[in-house]
UniProtKB/TrEMBL annotation, chains A, B:
Predominant location category: cytoplasm
Gene3D superfamilies found in the cross-reference section: P-loop containing nucleotide triphosphate hydrolases
Localization terms from the record: Cytoplasm
CDD domains referenced in this protein's UniProt entry, alphabetically: CobA_ACA (cd00561)
Record's protein name: Corrinoid adenosyltransferase
EC number(s) given by UniProt: 2.5.1.17
Domain Cob(I)alamin adenosyltransferase N-terminal, first and last residues per copy: 8-31
GO cellular component: cytoplasm
Record pathway: Cofactor biosynthesis; adenosylcobalamin biosynthesis; adenosylcobalamin from cob(II)yrinate a,c-diamide: step 2/7
Pfam families to which the protein is assigned, alphabetical: Co_AT_N, CobA_CobO_BtuR
Family: Belongs to the Cob(I)alamin adenosyltransferase family.
Listed GO biological process terms: cobalamin biosynthetic process; porphyrin-containing compound biosynthetic process
Length: 208, 208
């Protein structure tokens, strides 16, 4: 059958609709595939408030879906924080490691900090090998990397080798560019105002 | 006794130290006063990922400190999210209201959205009057305000009239300037990258 200029508009529309349907099916399949195969690496960085708390909100979400979660806190830990106290209530669901000994400016001991960071990474690697843990939080890892306490290549290699479906959330200021490159989602949290600067101390429930 | 150029360095140092100690005592007193008297209004805004999850991380922190928490979700709610499922496990500690019916672009019914928003604010106001609830989360309130579904002056007045020690966390894009003005801490979350844009759908545990 020959095509002619008299092909109806209806015919053109039908072809267009068909083409769009094929396109939509292809996009849907790609999205379904992506969702099926890919755990997200999420990096929360920048100086503003909300990086670690956001990671812990995702822990709560994951628990709401019956998922297991692994946490390594690389810097905090001199005193147990609210999040630690809370999530330790669920030892069957949350594997919770604290390797840091307070903020770095409080410890004043570089050799000790490096030792703790490396011990922390051994625990992190263990979580990054677990098929049964769909969410891993590496809290303040960026700080540890920025200080050069861990080798970046090792960290990137272990993140890349993790189970396909596993999500990882990395927090802390100063995310290294290669980590940002590897990540699918990156948020940069800016300070518009901070209560600290108005003489209000860190508040239990908000920061601690 | 006359002072002279022969006043010792030690003497000068002692005076300096004394002055610094007085200054430090004054600053400490001011901080202690501020902490004692002031609940923080925290606003998490901007297009990046992590606003609501951060608020829910603070809920977990607060629960770790044995605090009671109130939550109103103004937009989400068409399907129960992970955070809702999880925090509803603690009905004695968390008062959890969901007033929205899915994202606004899904509902397509402005009159209904306004009605739900106003019902939500009645519940929020109730929480903002409770002395026994030290943390209140108003999730996606900014969106509701940006759409003009609630009167901003009413919202600001109720926030201002809340108990002195109560912390409030408000989330959502497009925080109105007057709310930013009233807040002590404001973070603006920027998108560096987002997995959505790479064909990966919202992930249970991360976004849902």
């Amino acid at each position: 059958m020959n095509r002619s200029d008299t092909d109806t508009d209806t015919d053109t529309e039908a072809r267009h609709r068909e083409k769009m349907q094929r396109l939509k099916a292809a996009v849907d399949a790609r999205i379904a595939q992506a969702q099926e195969d890919t755990g997200v690496l999420l990096v929360l960085t920048g100086p503003g408030k909300g990086k670690s708390s956001s990671a812990f909100g995702m822990v709560a979400r994951a628990l709401g879906h019956g998922m297991k979660v692994g946490v390594v806190q690389f810097i905090k830990g001199a005193t147990p924080t609210g999040e630690e106290r809370f999530f330790r209530r669920f030892p069957d669901e949350v594997t919770y490691h604290v390797t840091g000994e307070g903020f770095t400016w409080e410890t004043q001991n570089r050799a000790r900090d490096i030792e703790r960071a490396q011990a922390g990474w051994v625990l992190a690697r263990g979580l990054l090998q677990r098929e049964d843990v769909p969410l891993v939080v590496l809290d303040e890892l960026n700080i540890v990397l920025a200080h050069g306490y861990l080798e970046l290549d090792t960290v990137l290699a272990d993140l890349t080798a993790r189970p396909l479906h596993q999500h990882v959330v990395v927090t802390g200021r100063g995310a290294p560019p290669a980590l940002v490159e590897l990540a699918q989602t990156v948020s940069d949290i800016k300070v518009v105002k901070h209560a600290f600067r108005q003489g209000i101390r860190a508040q239990p429930g908000l920061e601690l």
